[in-house]
Amino acid sequence: MKAYFLDPAVAQYVQTHSSSPDPLLEELAKETAAATGDSAGMQISPDQGAFLTMITRLAAPRVVVEVGTFTGYSSVCIARGLTGGRLHCFDVSEEWTSIARRYWRRAGVEDRITLTLGPALETLAAFDETVDLAFLDADKGNYPGYYELLVARLRPGGLIIADNTLRRGWVADPAHEETTTVEIREFNELVIEDPRVSVLMMPWADGMTMITKH
What is the DSSP string of the chain? Predict the structure, then answer.
């Protein structure tokens, strides 16, 4: 559980009073850690996965976009929440998404997912469907570009969820000038100043921002 902003005892209490991930997701998390080493931190946490499944069920979207698939944890969670819609995944790595494909098959959700490989600024620009729900969890320097492409395709009332928007809280420290922190800080300012949307930033996990289009 990523709980950078919670007292450890509270985080433990939250974890024990939330449904646990099933064995397939636990296995995927372990394989990701073994296969990707330090990059495994890019994977969302089990509580985030449960949230994505619930929000997808509640929203009942027809078209969902995920920018940044990695090894597939979030896409399995989103696809499980679909009730007739389709998830379109955009990623650049054949190696990591090959793990995702295996787990999509095992989870029985492969038929709900389309994967497009390549630089997402290019592949997403060619995507011409109206989007109901999007999850953004890719390279932070390109968040503004992904965001503009998603907002342009998002239906009124549609939702974008952006991950890692608090960067362990470093975004709130002006003295912290590490590159990714600066990139996320600039993205956060872009979003809050955008008159097309309403924004709710949640101090949960590593920060998740919910953005809905007017």
Answer: ---TTS-HHHHHHHHHTSPPPPHHHHHHHHHHHHHHGGGGGGSPPHHHHHHHHHHHHHH--SEEEEE--TTSHHHHHHHHH-SS-EEEEEES-HHHHHHHHHHHHHHT-GGGEEEEES-HHHHTTT--SPEEEEEE-S-GGGHHHHHHHHHHHEEEEEEEEEE-SSGGGGGG-TT---HHHHHHHHHHHHHHT-TTEEEEEE-STT-EEEEEE-
**pLDDT for position 171:** 97
* Closest of 9, 12, 2, 101 to residue 50, by C-alpha: 2
pLDDT 10s digits, 89-133: 999 999 999 999 999 999 999 999 999 999 999 999 999 999 999
Residue type, 21: P
